[in-house]
Amino acid sequence: MSENELIKVRIEDGIGIVTVDNPPVNALNSSVLEQLDKVIDDVSENNEIVGIVLTGGGNNAFCAGADIKSFAQLTDPNDVLAVIELGQKVFKKLSNVGKPVVAAINGAAYGGGNELALSCDIRISSDRARFSQPEVNLGLIPAWGGTQRLSRLVGVSKAKELIFTGQFVTAQEAYRIGMINKVVPDGEELRAASDIVRQIASRAAPLAIKAAKEIINTGNDENTLEEGLNLEVEAMKELVKTEDIQEGIKSFTEKRQPKYQGK
After folding, report:
1. C-alpha closest to that of 67 among 129, 25, 130
2. Which of 49, 168, 224, 244 could cross-link with 16 by S-S, CB 3.0 to 4.6 Å?
């Protein structure tokens, strides 16, 4: 692992711990996004990794958003749009990884940092973390998925309030409105996030997780209930052919833990 890596990866017990490490506040710029893009591909393709935990380096922030100083140096609007499109591409790829992705939010998650957390499947937060989407105060909008993912989590009206005002939200309030899944004492978020991945991996068939995740993501994209139900049927047509489903049924009848192979 070289010193200039902005995204660091280590594997612990089959969990890929991915850390955004761009001091002092882990801000996102083109270099960080490009490295994250590559890391997502690497951990997705690594069969030894059963799930991913995404966190921030240091103690200041999970990710305090886009690197505004680097944005200020972009004088051509097309260059700004290129960064927006890159962020959308990377966050979409993260949200579609066929493994569970859990955010361990260890501090401030502002702007693009909150959008990064929203791209994960599950969000575990330190009790001192704070959240916001302050882009409108800079003449921008949350364009890395914030307007879409936030409204799906907390509802349209609440998302409008948070985005229009740019107000800060405590971890406790973020939990109350459904933005995050769990609040833990400061310093416990990485362990708690890893425990969730272990729990999933110890019981769930990886192909079933992948299929369920794909259907949930796709089913929320303006599909009717009927269309979403059809997606479930199509997924089951493939799952019933797998060895994993046979192992799941057999382990249940034999009252033992399943040993899934992802086949």
Report:
1. 25
2. 49
